[in-house]
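We were asked to recover a plausible sequence for a given structure. The inputs and outputs are reproduced exactly as logged, with field labels preserved.

PROBLEM: sequence recovery
POSITIONS: 184
GIVEN STRUCTURE:
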């Protein structure tokens, strides 16, 4: 750059300042058309890029105290487990990595139940008792999401797979993909 000492590197733009070049007009028109702040537009763009091929589902408990969003396929692969707790609660769920789940509200309204190995964290709303998501034993680095707790409009199909939770260790050991479902 002119006026810079020889060998000096150009300074990067200040944080938050991005030169969009020829795209600046499109960016401004997009923000205005969709009534988005710069941060909201950037989040939309980043989500679309990072979660390509996925849909943002929202959902929560019955009373609305707990709300979340999760990025997953529009075509859900749901597990129907016959272990003691899943049978009692009719807990059907699909699994996602923790990075694709965000609790929007209600952390203070959640309580947790554990049993046996205490690996699974069965979270539920203190007010209405609904478990809309939990941390499964098979994927402690992810979340099991109850598809019936998702808001209408984003699920295209649901494929249900029975899993023999009564023989949990054997079922998980023999299942080809369940342990990897929480990997980004």
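RECOVERED SEQUENCE:
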């Amino acid at each position: 750059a002119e006026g810079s000492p020889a060998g000096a590197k150009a300074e990067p733009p200040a944080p938050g300042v991005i030169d969009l070049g020829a795209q600046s007009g499109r960016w401004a028109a997009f923000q205005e058309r969709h009534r988005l702040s710069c941060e909201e537009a950037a989040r939309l763009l980043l989500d679309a890029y990072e979660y390509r091929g996925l849909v943002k589902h929202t959902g929560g408990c019955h009373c609305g105290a707990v709300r979340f969003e999760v990025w997953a396929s529009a075509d859900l692969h749901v597990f129907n487990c016959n272990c003691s707790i899943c049978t009692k609660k009719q807990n059907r769920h699909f699994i996602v990595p923790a990075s694709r789940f965000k609790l929007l509200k209600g952390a203070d309204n959640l309580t947790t139940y554990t049993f046996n190995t205490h690996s699974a964290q069965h979270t539920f709303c203190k007010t209405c008792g609904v478990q809309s998501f939990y941390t499964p034993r098979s994927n402690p680095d992810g979340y099991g999401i109850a598809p019936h707790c998702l808001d209408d409009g984003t699920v295209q199909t649901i494929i249900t797979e029975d899993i023999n939770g009564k023989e949990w260790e054997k079922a998980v050991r023999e299942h080809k993909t369940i342990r990897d479902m929480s990997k980004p």
